[in-house]
């Protein structure tokens, strides 16, 4: 938490106003011309990157040892067919190794059943969530089309590549080879296991799987122990078939946000969802003790991928979420067509990082907007249920803000304190994480791409001192595939 | 390798078999037996089924043949023939002789682990492979109008397992 307000926006806005010529597109922007040229982050990629040392700038702390794992939807093209949605690229696990002042990078495709079959066939075989390759086969089950491409998390002593609509795949943390698909139980094969498991304060892991079948929506709640062994599972009927990508935890509750992006069967999975602007989003509070519904709170229709942390103070529950006023970010923004957020002249798909303050007795709520289009919000997993500053990437959206690119952002949901670092135009900032060195020093680390120089790298900041700039950076000689989520595993 | 057994389209519900359709909708498990005792009566046509897409080359396929919507849709187990057959490859061929002209539908599943039931997941969705004629049943148990086909001569029907 920051003790002083570090408002950097005014000088930032002045700098960016004259520094940028065109919109780079919110978040995730590659700056490439679309759709003919997907840019460096989306070009055909090798199926692996050998371990190589990166070129260092600044001082990488000697006590900072470990691995930053990230998952990228890397393989978007086969045999002349290009996926039309970023969510359909086959997963590649990237590993940045911090080894006592040196930084190395390596990467490997996740050897899913889908990937192996398509390698043999030398073409895409299955419909993706948002793409339809020619002569696609009928999916046998959810894992038929599982690209394991959204996140990579370590639970217990195992590393998992995660999708959201099918099984996890276990990955060798050293060489990144794929051990295989994970079944949490005999009757849990092929069921959805989201890319955003959350660690409870007692070390347990929780996750959800959103399942919609024949018009009936159910959310599977998984509780795993600290070693990722299944402790409990339950399917919870939902009032509406809304899209859910992630969830939140508080001291007492599993918190589902059932968005107004509603499912009715369509040609492709994402075509099956339509945003009901006149409808509602439901915040469903499940009691951790018995997974019963404690309370369901209706809020105006919104769309959400990601959450900050949630915490209870007295009779109030605080939950932060990067919410959108519609689901265009899903249908269009993360597509790779003309309306892509990655296009050079892209439409902006601004989220609004908002904090909901819910009275647990009467269900009444208040919303506080941060005026930050913040995405990939993260918090300190060791202290999940405390008010704390979130870190993410995005841009300010207040009435006086003129920011036209993405920044590294820290934001405190109660005090409203914010801190922003500007890399300048032409950079793609990826998910930041809080990490700790052996001495206890807290840092913020994230991968990024310098699009003008077509290279990828890492940036390291002292936590709470973002505006001072990175204390160390590490650069490759090439640009790696764009990535979604990951984790840091200390040595 | 193929099996060809006479089936009597006029002698229905001869086997007290639960079928795939019923399994999809209930907690009961099938105890199918081969339709060997079906008497050969007046029949004209041969129906050959090619079942494709076995992911596991072990276990038993349980298959039921229906000739009316009521029995197929009501899942009452009154099929006109039931077949069980060991799996030995990624495709299985089953033939019925002496079938009368008419409208038929097929339901089947693959008991890969030989526990004599269609395994289902936490949500009740089959976790073993199954199929219907016309490859119907993408969103739950197929109805007769989606799975049925006309037989007015010798015919081969391909079923891709789900």
What are the defining features of this structure?
heterodimer; A: 491 residues; mainly beta; Methylamine Dehydrogenase, Chain H; six-stranded antiparallel beta sheet; five-stranded antiparallel beta sheet; 5% helix; globular; disordered N terminus; B: 162 residues; Immunoglobulin-like; four-stranded mixed beta sheet; 9 strands; 10% helix
Structure description:
The complex is a heterodimer of chains A (491) and B (162). Chain A is mainly beta and 491 residues long. Chain A has a single domain, classed as Methylamine Dehydrogenase, Chain H (7 Propeller). Chain A contains three helices and 35 strands. In chain A, strand 13 and strand 14 form a beta hairpin. The longest helix of chain A is centred in the N-terminal third of the chain and has 11 residues. With 162 residues, chain B is mainly beta. Chain B has one domain: Immunoglobulins (Immunoglobulin-like, Sandwich). The longest helix of chain B is centred in the first third of the chain and has 6 residues. Chain B starts with a strand and ends with a strand. The chains are: A mainly beta (491), B mainly beta (162). At the A-B interface, loops of A face loops of B.
CATH level 3 topology of chain B: Immunoglobulin-like
Low-confidence stretches of chain B: 1-41
Structural class of chain A: mainly beta
Radius of gyration of chain A: 21 Å
Largest interface (CB within 8 Å) is between: A-B, 18 and 17 residues
- The CATH architecture of chain B would be Sandwich
Number of strands of chain B: 9
Task: Compute the number of structural domains of chain A.
Answer: 1
**How many helices of chain B in DSSP terms?**
3
Q: What is the distance, rounded to the nearest whole angstrom, between the alpha carbons of the first and last residues of chain A? A: 26 Å
């Amino acid at each position: 938490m920051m003790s002083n307000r570090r408002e950097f926006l005014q000088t930032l806005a002045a700098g960016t106003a004259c520094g940028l010529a065109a919109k780079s597109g919110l978040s995730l922007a590659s700056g490439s011309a679309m759709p003919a040229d997907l840019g460096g982050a989306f070009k055909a990629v090798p199926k692996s990157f050998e371990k190589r040392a990166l070129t260092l700038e600044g001082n990488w702390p000697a006590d900072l040892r470990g691995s930053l794992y990230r998952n990228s939807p890397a393989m978007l093209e086969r045999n002349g067919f290009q996926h039309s949605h970023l969510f359909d690229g086959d997963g590649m696990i990237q590993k940045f190794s911090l080894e006592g002042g040196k930084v190395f990078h390596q990467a490997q495709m996740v050897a899913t059943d889908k990937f192996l079959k398509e390698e043999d066939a030398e073409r895409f075989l299955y419909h993706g969530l948002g793409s339809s390759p020619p002569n696609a086969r009928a999916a046998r089950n959810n894992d038929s089309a599982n690209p394991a491409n959204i996140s990579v998390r370590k639970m217990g002593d195992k590393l998992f590549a995660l999708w959201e609509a099918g099984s996890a795949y276990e990955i060798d943390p050293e060489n990144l080879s794929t051990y295989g698909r994970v079944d949490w139980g005999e009757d849990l094969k092929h069921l959805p296991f989201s890319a955003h498991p959350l660690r409870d304060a007692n070390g347990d892991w929780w996750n959800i799987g959103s399942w919609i079948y024949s018009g009936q929506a159910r959310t599977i709640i998984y509780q795993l122990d600290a070693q990722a062994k299944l402790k409990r599972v339950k399917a919870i009927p939902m009032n509406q078939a809304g899209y859910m990508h992630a969830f939140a935890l508080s001291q007492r509750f599993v918190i589902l946000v059932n968005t107004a992006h509603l499912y009715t069967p369509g040609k492709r999975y994402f075509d099956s969802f339509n945003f009901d602007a006149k409808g509602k989003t439901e915040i469903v509070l499940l009691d951790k003790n018995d997974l019963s519904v404690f309370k369901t709170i209706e809020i105006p229709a919104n769309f959400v991928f990601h959450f900050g942390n949630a915490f209870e103070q007295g009779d109030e529950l605080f939950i932060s979420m990067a919410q959108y006023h519609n689901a265009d970010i899903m249908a269009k923004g993360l597509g790779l067509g003309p309306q892509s957020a990655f296009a050079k002249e892209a439409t902006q798909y601004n989220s609004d990082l908002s904090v909901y303050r819910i009275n647990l007795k009467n269900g009444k709520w208040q919303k506080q907007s941060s005026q930050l289009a913040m995405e990939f919000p993260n918090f300190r997993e060791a202290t999940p249920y405390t008010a704390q500053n979130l870190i993410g990437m995005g841009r300010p959206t207040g009435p006086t803000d003129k920011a036209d690119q993405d920044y590294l952002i820290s934001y405190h949901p109660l005090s409203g304190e914010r801190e922003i670092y500007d890399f300048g135009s032409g950079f793609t900032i990826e998910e930041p994480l809080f990490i700790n060195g052996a001495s206890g020093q807290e840092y913020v680390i994230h991968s990024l791409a310098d699009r003008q120089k077509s290279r990828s790298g890492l940036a390291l900041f002292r936590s709470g001192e973002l505006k001072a700039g990175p204390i160390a950076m590490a650069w490759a000689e090439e640009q790696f595939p764009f990535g979604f989520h990951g984790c840091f595993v200390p040595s | 390798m193929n099996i060809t057994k006479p089936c009597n389209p006029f002698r229905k519900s001869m086997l007290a078999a639960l079928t795939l359709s019923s399994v999809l909708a209930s907690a009961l498990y099938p105890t199918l037996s081969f339709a060997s005792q079906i008497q050969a009566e007046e029949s004209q046509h041969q129906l050959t089924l090619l079942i494709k897409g076995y992911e596991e080359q072990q276990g038993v396929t349980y298959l039921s043949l229906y000739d009316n919507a009521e029995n197929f849709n009501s899942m009452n187990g009154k099929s006109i023939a039931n077949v069980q057959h060991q799996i030995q490859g990624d495709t299985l061929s089953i033939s019925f002789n002496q079938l009368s002209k008419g409208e038929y539908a097929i339901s089947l599943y693959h008991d890969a682990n030989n526990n004599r039931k269609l395994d289902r997941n936490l949500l009740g969705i089959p976790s073993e492979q199954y199929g219907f004629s016309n490859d119907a049943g993408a969103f739950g148990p197929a109805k007769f109008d989606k799975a049925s086909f006309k037989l007015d001569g010798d015919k081969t029907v391909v079923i891709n397992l789900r």
